[in-house]
Amino acid sequence: MTILTPDSDRAATAPPSTAARSGLWTSRPATLLLAVAAGCAWWAAFPDVGAWPLAFVGVGLLYAALRRDGRRAAGWNALVGFVAMLTFWLPHIWWANFATDTVPWLALSMLQASFGALLGALWTWARRLPGLRLRGEATTVRSWGRAVAHAGAFAVVLVAVEQWRSEAPFGGFPWGRLAWTMVDAPTGRAAWLGGTTLVSLLVALAGVLGALAVGSAVTAWRTRTGPASSRRALAGAAGLLAVGVLCVVAPAALPLPAGPGPAPVRTADLDSTVVDAGTSTHETDGPVLLAGAVQGNVAEPGLGSFANRAEVLNNHLAGTSVLAGRGEDLDVVLWPENGSDLDPQEAPEVAAALDDAATAVDAPILVGAQEYPETGGRYNVSLLWQAGQGVTDRYAKQHPAPFGEYIPLRSFVRIFSDQVDRVTNDMLAGTEPAVIDLPRDDGSTVPMATIICFEVAYDEIVRDAVVRGAQLLVVPTNNASFGYTAESTQQLAMTRMQAMTTGRAAVQISTVGVSGVVAPDGTLMARTGLFTADQLVAALPLRTTLTPAVQAGFWPGWTVGGLAVLLVGGGLVTAVRERRARGQ
Question: What are the residues whose beta carbons fall under 8 Å from the beta carbon of 225, sequence distance 6 or more?
Fold first, then answer.
């Protein structure tokens, strides 16, 4: 694909018609339109729309929007990147507006979009490297290789910015990663090999290669420089497209999961009979854990969902009673985050009710609750409750959500919104890994990864739990405040991707939905609806092997970040040298 811009040297020597068309598509209005289109495609690739092929389209459009070159290109491309990502983030996290107010929603959207501005500026500098400059169509092996390297460099910078956004500020916000769109695509299976970093990298690379292939083919058709030249250009475009397609489909051949999927899953509603919710295509062998999960529901979606004292607790006790009446030989019953709106360690009547429920179902209950230490603050905890013993193990959320569960810079932020005063008691961060040991009747112990709510988006928390021996993933979450938005389905996509990354079966259990059971290969075995009272029962395979992605640890992210720094640094050095040469 010939990249001709109004500021480039090639524009002066190109045929007039080609240069004019190039100037049209790299004009400022055109790049802004491409940016908006990129953001829309990016948004539609995520749940609830879930049109995952549009992730590749979105990347290609964003790449096309960032083509301007010249002295002031970095500033303009930063603006274009900001517009593209603001177009994406505003609808993507609309649930933040529902759960809080307009100002916090806009602030979070603009903060995340600022990383799009960073991408635009960094890519402008990185592509100044001589080896990344495209010169004409990909008609030779050398020019074709240069085009692939060019696409790879853009993918590296994009994914590095995505990685940095997931880590800063205030611990980062990994929502909106390209990898989350790929749970139903063959590309998503690459998570088993290199985690979310590799999946995002493949999506970005395929998107840019597709854009280059289309651009090259269109240019060859329009210029018509001769049959032989056109054939070579079209062959080069086909080669680029073939590499892009390979990035999309090749991960389907990877050998995951690390074992078979769950046995048949059954679901029941409080007001209905038990129904079959679907079966796995795998045969279940090896050790399994028979788990029940209770989605208790609330009477009122949104901010008033926990207004009535003990309502949420009673709903989950009722759901547990339904499971007890079915006579299943359960190993554990899973409750969601905040499944009890009262702390059973402080309220004797709640402790007694939990004892009765655990006795009736003949299994421990994983209870979500809040702890309020005397020193101040609060902890968001998962408590393993056993009849007659109380709490036998505990996990406190390590990564409270900034501005949602605690307020950094409270005095300063209050200037812009009084919503900060809704969080009257800041949540404290737990210090222990997300692992709870579940004792079984045969004397064995099953370590469970208990990833609370938004923590499922943080690779390092999930990975650390698996490295420490977790044999399955449990994601207790409370989505009541987000109403009928896409927040819960976006989170379920993350749970599915983490199942593929770790090779572990997973259960996402919510107060109000969407809850789901996930096979180790990411297959969604069963799910509930929003704001319904449901129960799930599944035989979950237990796994102890570590996938390559888990063994790789932080290295994929570090490698991509390091390469991006080298690319940008090299581009800046090149730009300085060229400016000095022009001055001489």
Answer: none
Q: Please state, in angstroms and as integers, the Cα–Cα distance from residue 408 to each residue in 34, 174, 413, following that order.
A: 36, 18, 8
In the structure encoding, which two tokens stand for residue 489, read together? 């389905």
- Map 119-164 to HEC letters: HHHHHHHHCCCHHHCCCCCCCCHHHHHHHHHHHHHHHHHHHHHHHH
pTM for this predicted structure: 0.91
Could you give the CA distance from residue 240 to residue 121 in angstroms, rounded to a whole number? 26
Which residue blocks in 416-554 are alpha helix, DSSP H?
Answer: 459-467, 487-502, 548-552
By DSSP bridging, strand 516-518 and strand 445-450 are unpaired
- The confidence band for 260, taking pLDDT boundaries of 50, 70 and 90, is very low
In 344-486, alpha helices (H): 348-361, 410-413, 459-467
Output the six-digit token pair for 50.
Answer: 């879930």
Q: What separation in angstroms does the CA of 293 have from each of 16, 197, 474?
A: 67, 31, 10
For the chain, give the longest Cα–Cα distance. Answer: 87
DSSP 8-state assignment for residue 283? P
pLDDT tens track for 44-74: 999 999 999 999 999 999 999 999 887 789 9
Quick one: pLDDT at residue 226? 61
3 state SS of 293:
strand
Read off the tokens for 349.
Answer: 């009547």
